[in-house]
Amino acid sequence: MLNITGYTDRPSARPGERLDFKVSCEGGAQSFNARIVRLICGDDGPDSPGYKAQPIDARVNGNYPGRKQATDIGSYVVTKVPAEMPLAGGFTLVALVMPTAPAKEAKQTVLAWQEAVADASGRQRGLVLGLDRSGAAAAELNDGDGRIAISSETPLLAGRWYRLSLFVDAQGGRLVLCQTALEPAFGEIADRLVEAEVEFDLRDLAGAYVSAAASVTLAADRRRQSSLHFDGKIEAPAIFEGELDFTAIGYPTSKKVNRYLSWDFSRDMGGRELRDLSGHGHDAEIVNLPTRAVTGAHWRGETLNWRERPDLYGAIHFHCDDLYDMGWETDFSWALPANLPSGVYGCELTTTDGGEDVVPFFVLPPKGKATASLAFLASTYTYLAYANSHHGYEDALSEVCYGSLLELGPAEQFLKDRRDYGVSLYDRHRDGSGACHSSWHRPILNTRPKRAIWNFNADLHIIDWLHGIGQPYDVITDDRLHEEGYDLLKNYHCVMTGTHPEYHSTAMLDAFETYQQKAGRIIYTGGNGFYWRIATHADWPGAIELRRGEAGTRCYELPPGERFHAWGGEFGGLWRSQGRAPQKMLGVGFVTEGFDASSYYVRLADSFDPRARFIFSGIGDDERIGDFGILGGAAGLELDASDPELGTPRHALILARSVEHSNTFLLTPEELLAGFPGLDAIESDRCRAELVFFETRSGGAVFATGSIAWASALAHNHYDNNVSRLTRNVLKRFLDPEPFA
Amino acid sequence: MYEIDPTRLDLVAEFRRKPFGRHSAELQRILNRMRSEPFEGHYVLLRDGRFGPWRLAQLGRRPQDPVTPTGHVFASKLEAEWEVFKLRWQRLTGQELRDRDLPPEP
Known about the structure:
Chain B: InterPro entries: DMF_alpha_dom (IPR058713). The structure holds two protein chains of two kinds. Chain A is mainly beta. Chain A has three domains: 5-59 and 326-361, Immunoglobulin-like; 76-318, Jelly Rolls (Sandwich); 493-531 and 576-741, Rossmann fold, CATH 3.40.50. In chain A, strand 40 (690-695) and strand 41 (701-704) form a beta hairpin. The two termini of chain A are 55 Å apart. The model of chain A is unreliable at 206-212 and 247-255 (pLDDT under 50). The termini of chain B are far apart. Chain B has one domain (9-97). By secondary structure, chain B is of the alpha+beta class. In chain B, a hairpin with a 6-residue loop joins strand 1 and strand 2. Chain B is built from three helices and three strands; from the N terminus they run ααβββα. Chain B has helices at 9-17, 25-35, 77-93; strands at residues 43-47, 54-58, 68-74. The A-B interface holds A 44-46, 390, 393-397, 399-400, 403-410, 413, 416, 419, 430, 450, 596-597, 660-663, 682 and B 19-23, 25, 28, 31-32, 35-39, 42-51, 54, 59, 63-64, 67, 77, 80-81, 84.
């Protein structure tokens, strides 16, 4: 039962480093128990090795007071210091907006000036410019004793740019609300101007704002329980003294106009802080990772790269379900003992109301040291990409893709009700736009043992196998590889990937390539690997950014002009589209996927080459490879194959290929230039996994399995099977320092 | 749009024997049609324990809307697949599928 969940402040740590554990008793239990374990296997299915966890005698094991922790979901901007109103001559709030869900039947905040909390009598004074429940421009003024609301009564259209302004005439007691369409060529909506007399004295508000630490917010209200988030883009928000005369698109830039607050989102594109350009010190913080580097109101396709014309990229896309950090309080911290072995670990959390969770984390060896000759690379960035994914049950086409009914287990049912746990890079936000960020700062309910055989839980099959054959190993992680580069790999004879190492940064690929040039041996134990490019940013530790582009198997495509990362400015999308196809480094790359049934491999002529003799030692000439296992076969889920045009080395041996896949296995979109009949595995022999081996010039080598399902067959018959034998043959030779010819 | 031939009980029997994996081309067309039903009302399974049982439910109008259980409960996913196949067959062909109408196992 998901009556308890938790997370650590980061995915990985080294002996001597400290990890913070944050726990919420979601079922309301008053206490919980925590117990550190070393995770060996997470697959507790009926035909599986079973859940295996070794107890660790940790100082933090024990009982703790329980509490239900709160989360602030949805992105917004908030000033960091109190903001006083320039009331003397009145003032104008203005912003360019492109709503993406104007008809969501909830009020939405664009620009607000409010007291942070209500006073003892429940009064919370404020001024809000936004949209009303119908999606029309609206303004609300609340002086604590009364409230006035006005509306343009003309709903904005989704995906179209408008300028919204609100003049507050303090002397004359007037509010003037203006809604102007900025795309007259598509001008279905007439401009609207609404004036309202205000009965109370606006000057009464001034003192309150100074004394009550009022703040300016963008895209959200300050009240946590009813944040009234805006979904869509906002550009050039500003507050001016006096009333403005708008004669052009955008806001006046004349120096004669007194700006009281002004933020420019085209500056410091990835950063977390916003500097007030008005000189009044209203600097602000961006909360919960909205999407930056998106096209603004003036963009007309002049460039697709924000770095060439940042002035056309002055918008931020806010979402009501953006999340960076759930912000839970720390319940306990653990300084990792100096002698703690490298491995995959978990913190088992239990409550007396049946709550159970296992919070995973990864322990590396001390920095600069290797405690084994083999490193297992845990795909922490791939775990992040899929974190708390909703797309399976939010896209009805999933069933025809998976070839079986959609299933919502307890975790999926929980997540469906709890959007505050955030979304994955496979999801669309509530406004329909694709999610570009994922963060570790939350419980990630599909990166857990005893869940689906996918990513983390599938990778534990490899850990279990290493224990099963008595092979020592260190665990390293994507996030540390990104930070430390080749230095993290250089002490290992061999690096083994997980089942699905799909997401990589430039720094990670560079590290792998250097390792390969320096005689490193790589066992790519999965499929669909080294596929998407991601980026990180120092202001947002623990998070990744992804900009999905034109190609690839994907759940959404970002709008035109928005495919360069805000973080670092690199072009996003497939590595294949950027000259670094995985076939170059690993011999194989993604070609097909299907989830209904897995199959097996047959040996090809290259498997009898003397260079491959060590790989097939003890395996018969006609043996089917991997026609067993908990998924029914070692070739399944997502499959990779060689392609000389994409870089598979000419001397690579194509040892075996998979056969007999169903027609849910289709060629991936990037393999096609046009649609045509015969794209599935029954009619196309291109839909297959291939086992590939090749040596590198420096004495290193690569072995690739080309299938996510490979590891699921390792434990079959107590690790005595030809998938295990073959992998073990490769590993034994790859750990032998003798250079390959 | 592909229309299902309600007389092809041989294809029903093929699905009954093997709901997952490779199918004949004609059965695959039927499954593609059935599994591509619109979002609203789409059948899904709710699994409340680690290994079942499974409750049948239907999706709401939008992703954020709650699912509605139909009242069917299954001890296995195979049972669930068969029940949903029958429900969809009836909706798409207007004809009820009964086990006794299926051709004998080959």
